Amino acid sequence: MLVDIASIGRDPHTGGYRRYAWNDADMALREWFVSAAESRGLDVHEDGNGNQFAWRGSSTEGNALMIGSHLDSVPDGGAYDGPLGVVSSFAALDQLGDFASKRPIVIANFADEEGARFGIACAGSQLLTGVLSVDKALALKDRDGITMAEALTARGRDPRAVGADPGFLAKIGTFVELHIEQGKSLIHSGDAVGLASAIWPHGRFRFDFCGEANHAGTTAMGDRRDPMIAYAVTVLAAQHLATSAGARATFGKLVVEPGGTNAIASRVTAWLDARASSEPTLDRLVDELVAAAIAASDKTTVEMTTESFSPAVDFDAPLRDGLATLLNAPVLPTGAGHDAGVLSAHIPTAMLFVRNPTGISHSPEEFAEDADCRAGVDALVSVIKALAC
Ligand code: HGY
Ligand code: MN
Ligand code: MN
To answer: Residues of 45-71 as b/e, b for ≥16 C-beta within 10 angstroms?
Structure first.
């Protein structure tokens, strides 16, 4: 199945995936999901937020076991972050063949997990659970100024259908998301599959540095109001503060206006992704970074806006420990965010990680060995047998 979808949304120059909410690649993957489900006799339902669900058994029964993940990607993402969980779910059902289950099983493809287009991660699951406000989501704009509402409409979806669906959540008894590991813990432990203990709190913060556009050749260095300088100091402060706090701080997205080589910038907009093992540590990191940005803004200004925040997640302990025993798998924390983290506030939720032999993720280099992917499917089969059969 990974081979079947390998060419969808792949940039020929970088080899990375550009599968963003509601773009052509995302639409092709949605069609692929529907046909993968229907060819297995599953009933597909898409909710008002664009999340797709493939049901084995009646969707009216309740207490369903949900598995799956997402199919979208970061800019130039890898082939496994997201898709591995979806294809492994179909593969697990294939491996089980014609079996009787006590509970319905539903495979999910959550919409817009990476937030690559509209800026908010896990938008589909956050809307489903009511964590993300509908008005805020619909007004989010992509780089071209297209709102989420306009993107939905352009794909024949109704923005008025966006929102929380407690009726759906009430039907789900357990969610288990399988995902490629995005670090090196399983390399060190020597295991093909692990269980998640917790997700670090994390957030996305926009810094707007403003100054004055002027001529690069004629403006004396002392006369400049160059916002790039405060931005540069802030990047170095982020590196220093995160390193000393044992946290993570990344500026990976930047817009410079007007963007001319021979013009001093009038505005630098930079997005910080920050994560830490606890919320106080994260709060302190962001506060200190804002203070550093203000201190560096001499003749310029800076404003910080929190675009999204995801609190710490501790996965359901009985479920996690039961599955760790069942699979004889190690339990590890992660700095990555997931729909499972969002769902865990509403439903007993667990995550399975599949070994990543380099630890690289959010990159075209992301990789998993076939044997480890098969071990992931075997683990999912064991989970389905234990929880639903
Ligand atoms: O950004 C994240 O943590 C995740 O991979 N969506
Ligand atoms: Mn990701
Ligand atoms: Mn993911």
So the answer is: ebbbbbbbbbbbbeeeeeebbbbbbbb
